[in-house]
Design a protein that fits this description.
Layout (H helix, E strand, L loop, with lengths): L3 E3 L5 E3 L8 H11 L2 E6 L3 E6 L2 H8 L4 E2 L6 H4 L25 H10 L6 H5 L2 H16 L6 E2 H6 L1 H11 L6 H8 L11 H21 L8 H7 L10 H32 L1 H8 L5 H11 L5 E7 L3 E3 L2 E3 L4 E5 H4 L3 H4 L28 H18 L4 E2 L21 E3 L3
Parallel strand pairs: 4-10
Antiparallel strand pairs: 1-2, 3-4, 5-7, 6-12, 7-10, 8-9, 11-12
Helix pairs in contact: 6-8, 6-17, 8-9, 8-12, 10-12, 12-14, 12-17
Length: 416
């Protein structure tokens, strides 16, 4: 639960707990504080959080809030140190699309549009289907014993898809997955996240060098980026390509893993909805979209920073303050979704989630995440229609994370 914390101004504010006992209750408590509330993050870091749908949309589309951490007063005055566990998710280099605003951000979006295009994503369908079948074949051999679905399947399929998309050698898929696995979690040593980013940056630096040595020999996302040009614009620099590759995995892989797990978990906990799906009364698209609303793969996104004082209802976000978008709390918004927000209802027609973001920074990888989840989930339940949890749901634990909504393990029986 978001316990009140007394901070520098002797004001009690909710604590954004990376170790909540009850994630849904934690979100509800934050929603009740809203729509814009002061919060405290691990390490005593103070910020604001949007916890209602309308407030989040307004701030996500407001140019007075920017991604540049140089605008963050508490970092500039030394209140927040460089080894704060979440410093690694902030971008100081000026070449990461996630950390840009205005014209520089629009340029990056244009130059990366082709690799993210619907046509390019659709070309991945047969690859995703083949990769999924290969992993399902491997699971089939262990179908009568408990196994960790996350470790053996829902983590491996997306990292293999990313590997093929990027043109990474197959023998390096596991290495890439191992580099990213601990990136979003707080139970690491001070500075470890920055070390991980440095290792990942070096990995992609070497990958780009190999691709540049013979561009014509490759047809993949990496070479698409290296060839990216826009009319009247400079092409992407090598540094921009490297950081874009890093960012797409960081933002997209974990999201897809969590989305797959969360859909499976929702169906296993709501057999009546699973029965409706089997009977054709619901579509997989409806189930995926309601899961994105009910239990989104991302919990809270850090940060954007106010470039001037911004009045928001009864409060004012001061120039230099940090702002969190708390997607978990937004799922509880009655005005947007109705009074039954605690109900998993794939036939819900009221409201439209923003779990992939909103405004200029809406996730460009959303079409790939949806395509991948749709293929993986259909095939998983077609192969193992009686899939069950191997432990009571109350025993499932989340990773110690503020940003992502990620299970530590997901023990299941494929053929009970």
């Amino acid at each position: 639960m978001p316990c009140p914390v007394t901070g520098a101004n002797d004001a009690e504010v909710p604590f954004l707990d990376p170790y909540p006992d009850d994630l849904q209750a934690h979100r509800e408590e934050l929603y009740q504080q809203g729509p814009v509330t002061p919060v405290e993050l691990p390490g005593g870091v103070r910020a604001w959080a949007t916890t209602h749908h309308a407030a989040a949309k307004a701030t996500l589309n407001d140019p007075r809030f920017v991604k540049d951490p140089h605008q963050w007063a508490d970092f500039q005055n030394g209140k927040v140190s460089q080894d704060w566990p979440y410093m690694g998710v902030l971008t100081f280099d000026g070449i990461n699309m996630l950390g840009l605003d205005g014209a520089p951000h629009r340029r990056m979006r244009r130059l990366t549009a082709h690799p993210f295009s619907a046509r390019r994503v659709e070309r991945l369908r047969p690859h995703i289907e083949r990769i999924t079948d290969e992993y399902l074949d491997a699971l089939d051999k262990r179908a009568h014993e408990p196994l960790d679905l996350k470790k053996e399947f829902s983590f491996r399929v997306p990292i293999t898809v990313i590997g093929e998309l990027y043109g990474v050698p197959e023998e390096e898929y596991d290495k890439l997955g191992d580099l990213y696995a601990p990136l979003f979690f707080v139970d690491t040593d001070p500075g470890e996240h920055l070390d991980l980013y440095a290792q990942i940056y070096q990995y992609f630096t070497e990958l780009v060098a190999r691709k540049k040595a013979d561009l014509d020999a490759h047809d993949d996302f990496t070479t698409d980026l290296l060839r990216s040009t826009g009319e009247g614009e400079e092409p992407l620099t090598e540094g921009e390509v490297i950081v874009t590759l890093l960012m797409v995995v960081a933002a997209g892989h974990e999201t897809t893993v969590n989305l797959i797990n969360n859909v499976v978990r929702a169906l296993l906990n709501h057999p009546e909805e699973h029965a409706r799906l089997r009977a054709g009364e619901l579509t997989w698209e409806q189930v995926i979209e309601e899961t994105l609303r009910y239990n989104p793969p991302n919990n809270a996104i850090l940060f954007r920073f106010a470039t001037e004082d911004v009045p928001m209802g009864e409060v004012t976000i001061s120039k230099g303050d940090a702002l969190v978008t708390h997607y978990g709390a937004i799922t509880k918004d009655r005005e947007e979704y109705g009074e039954d927000v605690h109900v998993f209802d794939p036939s819900r027609t009221k409201g439209r989630h923003i779990s992939f973001g909103y405004g200029p920074h809406m996730c460009p990888g959303a079409p790939l995440a949806r395509l991948e989840a749709g293929i993986v989930l259909r095939k998983l339940f077609a192969r193992f229609p009686d899939l069950r949890l191997a432990v009571p749901d109350r025993e499932l634990e989340n990773e110690a994370a503020l940003i992502v909504n990620s299970l530590k393990e997901f023990p299941v029986l494929l053929r009970p």
